[in-house]
Amino acid sequence: MPRVSAEHLEARRRQIMAAVRRCVGRKGFDSVSVQDVLDESGLSAGAVYRYFSSREELVIAVADDILSSVRLTFEQSLARRPLPPLSDLVAEVFTQESPMDATPESSRLMLRFWAAAADQEALGKRLADMLAEVRVLFADIVRTYQEHGEIARDADPIAVADVLIGAVHGFIVRSAFTEDASVDALRHGLRALAG
């Protein structure tokens, strides 16, 4: 039996993840079944179960995929010199080709994930872990900007991180329900707050 390349395996995993996102976007987390994902992806049960052993694993994988995308965007931005303005760095999360692309569909997916996490213990635990990871990530970003003189050195990195996370979450809620949610407005608002 010929070996399947790592690229093929990753492409298949991405195909499954995209199918989960589309299904959740239409039906919500609680209503999506593995059969829905099979129908949406066009794959066999064996192909899906090769990657994920349960519906819950599929849902958590979507959440992890979103966090990985956010982390990668930040890491790439922080590697640039000179550093981009902090407002641009935060806005870039929504302008990359990723699960967080500022479309109403992507934003509603996040809201559905948050709502499902309130009712499902395993998902709630993963969301709490993700939020803790995001908080550490944002605090590290703040420290990087402090080292470069972009943020006051005496500012509490965790407090600044919490404000930035609040701005991101608020933007997600707005973009899920209003047509006037703009990444440029988020960028300009954060820039104005930075003084």
UniProtKB/TrEMBL annotation:
Coiled coil segments of this chain: none
HTH tetR-type domain segment(s): 10-70
PANTHER family named among the record's database cross-references: HTH-TYPE TRANSCRIPTIONAL REGULATOR RUTR, HTH-TYPE TRANSCRIPTIONAL REPRESSOR RV1474C
Organism name: Nonomuraea composti
Cross-referenced InterPro entries: BetI_C, Homeodomain-like_sf, HTH-type_TetR-like_transc_reg, HTH_TetR, Tet_transcr_reg_TetR-rel_C_sf
Keyword set, alphabetical order: DNA-binding, Repressor, Transcription, Transcription regulation
A Pfam family recorded for this sequence: TetR_C_6
DNA-binding interval(s): 33-52
Name this protein carries in UniProt: TetR/AcrR family transcriptional regulator
